[in-house]
Write a structure and sequence with these properties.
523 residues; mainly beta; 6 helices; 35 strands; 10% helix
Length: 523
């Protein structure tokens, strides 16, 4: 155990920037203890040569209503004149390749974000693959009737992974059908969701770490407050048929109208080729369950479009969209130049016998046709598949195979096809998050459950990780606001749902070793 965690103890300090104040982070216990503060300090704030303790570290691992782990550092500096003291809560949130937090790169990174710094408590969300339990699948198999075969059916896959958003949460529209529900719902209430993953940590959005949906009242300044978790992404996507599916988020905060129940979320996805990704819409509230309808093209099956030879256009009648190759930035009057056997080959996209298929789940359009090319294959014809992918860049690639049949796969990434698919041009592809990430110890695969080693690593990392809040490049307004945090105190404590009976036993025995009972508790 000690040898595996040795690299963690020697991590250098890191400065994390986000909408909140910057925070100096260190994984080095000695550096934290002897350079900055006293031995017991777990988190601190630094300004103009003065330090404020924000809580003493401990290894008491606690669990919220979804069994997600967190640490609570208490007994920090005095907070205002009310006699309360500062505390720091560190929530561990699942982040791995399945949640798209690593951008598809098979490396493990941990990210720390400040969520709240008010009401005498600092709330931090620590994104790490070690907080992931069994990852839910955002895919579901459904059976569909096969045309032309009486009584038979085939299996198809409903895939909503394109809706997983690692950068932003979706904000739902409110269109309640019941007048009674409309009257009970405050006008300043907003709803934030993500798909098959926890919410992306955002400054001031203080729902329990790991929540998949969150309800919040918005202040006059536009900041979320009085947040309530509407459930956690526990259950896998359920396919109803080829064009509809449902997703459930369970075990949210206690229901205000029935304390014996917890808030939950049901999201109903339906095919609509006109709306692109679409947007969730709150349509009803029933027995502490919030029902959202979500029309999206992602769930739609591949659709065959018509092709106009005269205008050289793909026509999607159902969505009312057209794409003209003669005006495309990657073509010249409907013709594309490629290299074949060290010679230039001119492909004419316009012509007869063209077949176009949209694939909304992959953000692309396929166009199939043949091109006369003597010496290519037995028949002197090249089978062409042109794949147009919605992207923020213009980039092409070609793959030619010559066997009994001659074929060409031409892939064109382009922003010009996005509108045809009902999509906005995506943000910079491959861009990294604005938060500083700290590489974690190398692992052989993505973690799908919380192991004793992982928990111990997280506790030691965070215990000797969160060091100091720095005011290095703030505006005068920000400095003034942070000073008020220590001079004045609000009368309400927002994070009051931590109960004493939630606290787990110490993971370590006095001698610092795991016991068999600890393993049983964590497995």
């Amino acid at each position: 155990m000690q040898s595996q965690l040795e690299p963690v103890h020697h991590k250098p300090a890191h400065l994390v920037h986000n909408a909140a104040v910057p925070m100096i982070i260190s994984m080095t216990r000695i550096w934290l203890n002897y350079i900055f503060f006293k031995f017991k300090t777990g988190a601190c704030y630094f300004q103009n040569g003065q330090s404020y303790e924000l809580g003493n570290f401990n290894s008491h691992l606690r669990f919220n209503q979804s069994d997600s782990p967190y640490l609570l550092y208490e007994e920090g500096a005095n907070c205002g004149s009310t006699g309360r003291r500062w505390s720091t809560k560190i929530e561990f949130v699942c982040a791995n390749n399945a949640t798209k937090d690593n951008g598809g790169v098979k490396t493990t990174t941990d990210v720390v974000q400040i969520i709240e710094d008010s009401n005498c408590q600092l709330l931090i969300q620590y994104q790490t693959p070690h907080a992931c339990r069994q990852q839910i699948r955002c895919k579901a198999k459904v059976y569909v009737d096969s045309p032309g075969a009486s009584g038979s059916n085939s299996e198809e896959l409903v895939d909503l992974t394109p809706l997983i958003n690692p950068n932003e949460n979706y904000e739902a529209r409110v269109e309640l059908k019941s007048k009674a529900a409309q009257e009970l719902m405050p006008k300043n209430t907003k709803f934030f969701l993500n798909v098959c993953r926890p919410l992306v940590p955002k400054y001031q959005l203080g729902c329990a770490g790991g929540s998949g949906a969150c309800m919040a009242n918005m202040s006059s300044a536009g900041a979320p407050e009085e947040e309530h978790s509407l459930g956690f992404p526990w259950t896998e996507l359920t396919g109803i048929n080829r064009t509809t599916a449902e997703l459930l988020y369970l075990k949210g905060d206690p229901c205000p109208t029935n304390k014996s129940m917890n808030l939950s979320t049901r999201i109903h996805f339906s095919c609509n080729m006109r709306v692109g990704r679409g947007q969730p819409v709150l349509t009803s509230i029933d027995d502490c369950n919030y029902h959202f309808d979500w029309d999206t093209s992602v769930i739609c099956p591949p659709h065959e479009c018509s092709f106009s030879e005269d205008t050289c256009e793909i026509v999607q009648d159902e969505a009312g969209m057209r794409f003209n190759f003669k005006n495309a930035s990657f073509a010249t009057d409907g013709k594309i130049e490629i290299e074949h056997k060290k010679q230039k080959l001119l492909l004419n996209v316009c012509g007869t016998h063209r077949k176009a298929m949209t694939d909304y789940s992959q953000d692309l359009v396929n166009l199939f046709f043949t091109h006369d090319l003597p010496g290519c294959g037995k028949e002197g014809k090249m089978n062409v598949q042109m794949r147009l992918i919605c992207s923020n860049i213009n980039e092409k690639s070609t793959t030619i195979t010559e066997d009994t049949q001659c074929s060409l796969l031409y892939v064109q990434r382009t922003p010009s096809i996005c509108q045809f698919l009902g999509l906005s041009v995506p943000q910079n592809e491959g861009s990294s998050s604005t938060s500083t990430s700290i590489p974690a110890p190398t692992t052989s695969s993505t973690t799908t459950s919380i192991t004793p080693t992982a928990i111990m690593g997280i506790i030691l990392s965070v215990t000797f990780f969160v060091a100091c809040l720095g005011m290095f490049a703030f505006s005068p307004a920000r400095r003034h606001r942070v000073r008020r945090l220590f001079r004045h105190s609000s009368s309400a404590v927002r994070y009051s749902r931590v109960q004493s009976n939630e606290e787990a036993n110490l993971l370590l025995e006095p001698n610092g070793e795991f016991t068999e009972s600890d393993d049983d508790m964590l497995l």
